[in-house]
């Protein structure tokens, strides 16, 4: 991207959609002129489970529109539609590969953006707010189940006319979001880019206590993140404020897990402006079959022996076993099966802001390579946290 112009987002837009352009412009107020959005339309008028509807999402019209957007030298491309949610995520992944091959521009889709949001926030039980007919809604539930997401489905509005989706009042969409935030849902997704849910997210998140991932918002967020812009804007819900930080944390933890062969990695941090507190993890990566600790807030983390040691020593704690001080909380052993760990402090302005934990279910000697991988991760997250404070 040139230093002398705003970042440009190229959006492939369903032809009958009247929502995503004005909503995107509204969301871009948070960019203060540093981002512009550019749209090309592809024919989409009806959402159903039949060959006529499916044909609207063929690749060639999208590639033709993408080439036109490439003439504007956009920095990222998105298919701003949720068709992959019922046609299959692999179809979207293949589309993204084809768009990038044809233009040389990084790309994503609304469905992939929603899945990325769920990964960033560790969501595995997702409420769904949908305008579609029930058979399309059921297909979405099945598609997301293949991606590891159990769904709580609020009653869909039962529409199949794409233009009509945007005429559903925002107050009705808000009530549907509320209905989806039940039965253990860890977040709610508004799965349609022609529904007015984006500007309800901030208020509803505060009322419901869970993230609200509107499709238009999620698509813009992921496009900006993919282009390296990492938005952190207030007023539009957690995804545009905190999502890029959480996604980065998740990526770092996943890398440490792979590099060390550990069973679990977590990051805890006090960043109130981003809704983060050390008593709940900001991110977690897990080995196969390992139990999550992400939503367990039962311990006062700052008062743990191991964390008090970090506070005093300000260096990495390497524990091949727990037979010597400082001892971890017994629940870590008894409930979560941890028998060895490394903890590394993250400091900002001389304060212990947070720490990375690397867990093993068995006693093990942590190698120099393991400790180097943790040191790299610590430096990365220290820099990222420092940049946000």
Automatic annotation (TrEMBL):
Q: Transmembrane segments in this chain: where?
A: none
| UniProt domain GAF: residue ranges | 249-381
Q: Which InterPro entries match?
A: GAF, GAF-like_dom_sf, Iso_Racemase_Enz_sf, MaiA/AMDase
Write down the Pfam families for this protein, in alphabetical order. Amdase, GAF
Fetch the SUPFAM superfamilies from UniProt: GAF domain-like
Tell me what this protein is called.
GAF domain-containing protein
């Amino acid at each position: 991207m040139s230093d002398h112009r705003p970042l440009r987002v190229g959006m492939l837009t369903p032809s009958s959609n009247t929502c995503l352009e004005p909503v995107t412009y509204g969301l871009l107020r948070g960019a203060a002129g540093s981002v512009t959005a550019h749209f090309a339309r592809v024919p989409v008028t009806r959402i159903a489970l039949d060959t006529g509807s499916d044909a609207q999402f063929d690749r060639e019209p999208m590639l033709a529109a993408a080439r036109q957007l490439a003439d504007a030298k956009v920095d990222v491309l998105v298919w701003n539609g949720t068709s992959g949610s019922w046609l299959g995520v692999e179809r979207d992944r293949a589309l993204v590969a084809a768009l990038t091959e044809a233009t040389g521009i990084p790309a994503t889709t609304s469905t992939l953006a929603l899945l990325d949001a769920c990964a960033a926030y560790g969501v595995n039980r997702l409420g769904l707010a949908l305008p579609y007919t029930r058979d399309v809604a059921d297909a979405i539930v099945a598609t997301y189940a293949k991606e590891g997401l159990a769904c709580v489905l609020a009653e869909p509005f039962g529409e199949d006319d794409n233009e009509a989706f945007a005429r559903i009042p925002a107050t009705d969409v808000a009530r549907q979001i509320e209905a989806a935030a039940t039965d253990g849902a860890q977040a709610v997704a508004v799965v349609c880019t022609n529904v007015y849910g984006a500007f309800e997210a901030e208020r509803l998140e505060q009322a419901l206590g869970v993230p609200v991932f509107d499709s238009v918002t999620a698509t813009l967020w992921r496009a900006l993140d993919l282009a390296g812009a990492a938005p952190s804007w207030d007023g539009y819900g957690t995804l545009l404020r905190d999502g890029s930080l959480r996604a980065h944390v998740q990526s770092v933890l996943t890398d440490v897990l792979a590099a060390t062969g550990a069973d679990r990695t977590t990051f805890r941090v006090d960043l109130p402006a981003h809704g983060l507190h050390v008593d709940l993890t900001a991110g977690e990566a897990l080995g196969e079959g390992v139990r999550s600790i992400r939503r367990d807030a039962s311990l006062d983390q700052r008062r743990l022996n191991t964390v008090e040691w970090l506070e005093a020593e300000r260096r990495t704690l390497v524990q091949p076993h727990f037979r010597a001080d400082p001892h971890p909380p017994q629940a870590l052993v008894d409930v979560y099966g941890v028998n060895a760990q490394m903890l590394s402090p993250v400091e900002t302005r001389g304060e212990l802001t947070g720490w990375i934990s690397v867990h093993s279910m068995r006693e093990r000697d942590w190698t120099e390579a393991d400790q180097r991988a943790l040191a790299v991760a610590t430096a990365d997250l220290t820099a990222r946290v420092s940049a946000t404070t």
